[in-house]
Ice-binding protein C-terminal domain-containing protein
Amino acid sequence: MKRLIFALVAVCFMLPTNAQALDYDYFGNMQYHNDVLRFDFSVLGSGERVFFSSSWDDGGFDPMLGLWNSDGSLIEFQDDGGATGTQLSNGVGYDYGGYDSFYAVNLDVGSYFLTLTAYDNFNISDSYLDGFQRDGDTPLLIADWDQPANGSVTNEYAFHILNVDRASGPIPAPEPSTMLLLGVGLLGLIGFGRKKMKA
């Protein structure tokens, strides 16, 4: 019986499955005012994707989000979304404020990346390879920096990539809920097997 269960589990892992778009939430600290954090992601089906930050509303620095295709050409850039509200990501509502970035873009199948920078570290051009406005500056700790137009702020960021197939970045994304369910199911099978062996 035990071999049968393991064989069934192994077969389930080998079966092809349809990709399901996921939401990725990133939280962390940006150390310097001229840092550029990069987050890569892929899209396996065409459709609308949502990108937004939710850190300014909580006292973090004024974030800017750039969306780039795989060859480093700018698709979308936003400093301030200008809107306030709440957006769901992974079943949690995140508030965003006027200085947070928020946009929705239709993307085709492919690989893309987002850049997160602090205001006013704008991209120099529509090419990622050209760099950013503050690249040559002596790095200043955000915690010690008087951010233009915002004053003293914390170095914390929170931003979200919605409806993509895979994403990676400097801070690991939380495991999708499907992996959690799979883990709970496997623990249940192990517990069931141990109970049966004792009987």
Residues 11-18, 171-180 have pLDDT under 50 and may be disordered. The two ends are 14 Å apart (CA to CA). The chain is about 20% helix and 40% strand. The chain has one domain: 20-198.
